[in-house]
Design a protein that fits this description.
The structure is a single chain. The protein has 852 residues and is mainly α. It has 4 domains: 84 residues, no CATH class; 121 residues, no CATH class; 238 residues, Clc chloride channel (Orthogonal Bundle), CATH 1.10.3080.10; 155 residues, CBS-domain. It has 31 helices and 11 strands. Helix 5 packs parallel to helix 13, helix 8 packs antiparallel against helix 17 and helix 16 packs antiparallel against helix 21. The longest helix is centred in the first third of the chain and has 42 residues. The two termini are 15 Å apart. One of its GO terms (cellular component) is Golgi membrane.
């Protein structure tokens, strides 16, 4: 199939409005030079694309690339959770929509915009340049009108303020939903172990807060909290009580997992997974209708709580980015500026992604950097400011809700009292190497398992798969106290710096000292509890490594941040305790005696856990700058930036040496999303003529002529092909390029003309010229469609190197460009052709580039 799409206009304005600026001189081809009489006139007439284009532009709440879907090419009806953008579309489910009165004259669509023209189909790519051009036209008109009246001035001010108001609403809604998810997940996780007699709505911690019979050492044990064995058999002692609690734990886990996968399967299939690979693809310009709709938001919010509470090895941080983007997309419908422009909407979604990370980790600055580094395709300076504001409001809202009851944004805020030493960079780098190895191993094995799920019968039974994995996880997790608790609580305990009053087994040291400095304890020999905890943590590490491979990618909401951090935190804590004991028993070694004397507090195992968490998360996602900022915001460890940086960079280098793709890019490729990665270089010496369609011995390129085809001819071409657009030439003999017209716009315009203009029949001539010749008497009226013609499609010559073509597609966000030779049209290169060529050059299957 050919992915043809909207053309590109090379405007005289600064190129900062484009996804990434690129010299407009590349657009000057021999074809356009020989057709200045049509190109210049057309450009003057339609101010970028066509007069009043911003009034006619409409769109659905969607996001993705060009697809050939046989049998559905003529169906542009909208889904229930993606409401129409203008009232006139509701009049009919077909393309015309209504709104233009009947007329006996020749229809000139330059004067009366048609509802639906300029919008995009599902699984199509937006045209960044056209969208930015329309936004400039809209802004220019508002600015000019603001000088005419006070009301117009007020409208101009409100238009400028609407972006900030939208960011405020996104931050408030995202923060509120995140708080609700945190509180609900905490309560339902504790529900697996028992209930509070003071009120079933209290979780374990809050239940014991209200108790008068609890000590600091046993603050998690109070008579008001009853385990299931106490409720069922009135005792918490003995083997039978253990079996009852074991059974109820597994039963609740299976119930939560079953409800989660069932709701996703029945009501919102798009609510599964992390959502970040799809968000990246959407932000690159692809359209997936319903992926950011209200049903997806509702089901993802509910099932995320259920999935986290089931005890599966997954997190809520990635899905919270999806939830925040759903909030942003839905709220865009309240503002015409964002509702009617897909490029502007993607700016909002970039800010929403930042707000999602802000509430997921309590890291507003890290959220902005995450959106910039990891997910956004187009991130102008204005979006940076608004992302910062949205992340700020979201974090403030979450802090006001205080879901963790500790007056902080995150569950595992810690403060370390001991500075790190230069020698410790060696174990920190070792943790970075471990993180890189773990990341590469996880990506390869998880992608292999997900591919097996797609290509075998396993993928047909998502409910069974989820229940089996949940049962295995719960059965193996209950006997070990470090796998029984939620992963967030585990990380919090691993990050913790042991104090005198800590009752955890990880802090069961032998106290062989008399005094210590305020706020710190000297290194001490490990007690029995520490050694027991080390064995349990080693088993926990093995379980987390294995089970996460099979969990991520199932048909439930599943994030990867927390499981990856847990793997790294466990490895880091194990190494940290080892280094601590080594320094205690061998403080006279050369590597220790210069900075670690006997009785001093030299090693902080919690810091090693934090560095290990950053290393493993970096190895899986390949984040660097945003990862370090998130980690120090997450823990408050501002003075530990250098260890975090060393571990993050080491893990990225090691992981990149074993595989270039992060987990999200790997899933994008696995699913066949048409995403053109901007970070990779194209180093092959091929030419445009090697990639363009048609190839040698292929049928000739399907084209339209500017003044010699009837309505019936055009409708026949539309019905017999599945192309997304057609070049328009002067004649089939000359093949001189005039412009490019989209398939969707043709269908809508012809159908609208048949209904609204008397006399238009199958034999009516279609004109794409500026002036149509006089119509002889007793002949059907002509149809003028010049307004839907792009008079400045992007063109390259057949000898243009493909590295330049790929760069153009990346930096301008093109859907397609036309290939000419001495001004004559030769072929077309679509975004999918570019992706298939890159895959072919990398010895990959080019047919995998197809939305699946």
């Amino acid at each position: 199939m050919e992915d043809a799409g909207a053309p590109v206009v090379c405007m005289a304005e600064p190129s900062a409005q484009l996804p990434l600026s690129f010299p407009c001189a590349l657009n000057v081809s021999a074809s356009m030079a020989q057709h200045t009489y049509s190109g210049i006139t057309g450009a003057m007439d339609h101010r970028g694309f066509h007069q009043g284009s911003f009034n006619s532009f409409q769109s659905s709440s969607s996001d993705e690339d060009l697809m050939d879907i046989p049998g559905t090419a003529m169906d542009f009806s909208m889904r229930d959770d993606v409401p129409p953008l203008d009232g006139e579309i509701e009049e009919s489910r077909s393309y015309n929509g209504g709104g233009i009165g009947s007329s006996n004259r020749m229809m000139d669509f330059l004067e009366e915009p048609i509802p639906g023209v300029g919008t995009y189909d599902d699984f199509n790519t937006i045209d960044w340049v056209r969208e930015k051009s329309r936004d400039r036209d809209r802004h220019r008109e508002i600015t000019n009108k603001s000088k005419e009246s006070t009301w117009a001035l007020i409208h101009s001010v409100s238009d400028a303020f609407s972006g900030w108001l939208l960011m405020l609403l996104i931050g408030l809604l995202s923060g509120s939903l995140a708080g609700l998810i945190d509180i609900s997940a905490h309560w339902m996780t504790d529900l697996k172990e028992g209930i509070c007699t003071l009120g079933i709505w209290f979780n374990h911690e809050h239940c014991c807060w209200n108790s008068n019979h609890v000590t600091f050492e046993n603050r998690d044990k109070c008579p008001e909290w009853n385990s299931w064995s106490q409720l069922i058999i009135s005792t918490n002692e003995g083997a039978f009580a253990y079996i009852v609690n074991y059974f109820m734990y597994v039963l609740w886990a299976l119930l939560f997992a079953f409800l989660a996968v069932s709701l996703v399967k029945v009501f919102a299939p798009y609510a599964c997974g992390s959502g970040i690979p799809e968000i990246k693809t959407i932000l690159s310009g692809f359209i997936i209708r319903g992926y950011l709709g209200k049903w997806t938001l509702m089901i993802k919010t509910i099932t995320l709580v259920l999935a986290v509470s089931s005890g599966l090895s997954l997190g809520k941080e990635g899905p919270l980015v999806h939830v925040a983007c759903c909030c942003g997309n839905i709220l865009c419908h309240c503002f015409n500026k964002y509702r009617k422009n897909e490029a502007k909407r993607r700016e909002v979604l970039s800010a929403a992604a930042a707000a999602g990370v802000s509430v997921a980790f309590g890291a507003p600055i890290g959220g902005v950097l995450f959106s910039l580094e990891e997910v956004s395709y187009y991130f102008p300076l204005k979006t940076l400011w608004r992302s910062f504001f949205a992340a700020l409001v979201a974090a403030f809202t979450l802090r006001s809700i205080n879901p963790f009851g500790n007056s902080r944004l995150v569950l595992f805020y810690v403060e370390f009292h001991t500075p790190w030493h230069l020698f410790e960079l060696v174990p920190f780098i070792l943790l970075g190497i471990f993180g890189g190895l773990w990341g590469a191993l996880f990506i390869r094995t998880n992608i292999a398992w997900c591919r097996k799920r797609k290509t075998t019968q396993l993928g047909k039974y998502p409910v069974v798969e989820v229940l089996v994995v949940t049962a295995i996880t719960a059965i193996l997790a209950f006997p070990n106290e470090y796998t029984r608790v939620s992963t967030s609580e585990l990380i919090s305990e691993l990050f913790n710096d042991c104090g005198l009053l800590d009752s955890s087994k990880l802090c069961d040291y032998e106290n062989r000292f008399n005094t210590s400095k305020a706020g710190e304890l000297p290194d001490r020999p490990a007690g029995v509890g520490v050694y027991s905890a080390m064995w349990q943590l080693a088993l926990t590490l093995i379980l987390k490594i294995v089970i996460t491979i099979f969990t991520f990618g199932m048909k439930i909401p599943s994030g990867l941040f927390i499981p990856s951090m847990a793997v790294g935190a466990i490895a880091g804590r194990l190494l940290g305790v080892g280094m601590e004991q080594l320094a205690y028993y061998h403080h006279d070694w050369a590597i220790f005696n210069s900075w670690c004397s006997q009785g001093a507090d030299c090693i902080t195992p919690g810091l090693y856990a934090m560095v290990g968490a950053a290393a493993c998360l970096g190895g899986v996602t390949r984040m660097t700058v945003s990862l370090v900022v998130i980690m120090f915001e997450l823990t408050g460890g501002l003075e530990y930036i250098v260890p975090l940086m060393a571990a993050a960079m080491t893990s990225k280098w090691v992981a990149d040496a074993l595989g270039r793709e992060g987990i999200y890019d790997a899933h994008i490729r696995l699913n066949g999303y048409p995403f053109l990665e901007a970070k990779e270089e194209f180093a092959h010496k091929t030419l445009a003529m090697d990639v363009m369609k048609p190839r040698r011995n292929d049928p000739l390129l399907t084209v339209l002529t500017q003044d010699s085809m009837t309505v019936e001819d055009v409708e026949t071409i539309i019905s017999e092909t599945t192309y997304s657009g057609f070049p328009v030439v002067v004649s089939r003999e000359s093949q001189r390029l005039v412009g490019f017209v989209l398939r969707r716009d043709l269908i809508i315009s012809i159908e609208n003309a048949r209904k609204k203009q008397d006399g238009v029949v199958s034999t009516s001539i279609i004109y794409f010229t500026e002036h149509s010749p006089p119509v002889p008497p007793y002949t059907p009226p002509t149809l003028k469609l010049r307004n839907i013609l792009d008079l400045s499609p992007f063109t390259v010559t057949d000898l243009t190197p493909m590295e330049i073509v790929v760069d153009i597609f990346r930096k301008l966000g093109l859907r397609q460009c036309l290939v000419t030779h001495n001004g004559r049209l030769l072929g077309i290169i679509t975004k999918k052709d570019v992706l298939k060529h890159i895959a072919q050059m990398a010895n990959q299957d080019p047919d995998s580039i197809l939305f699946n």
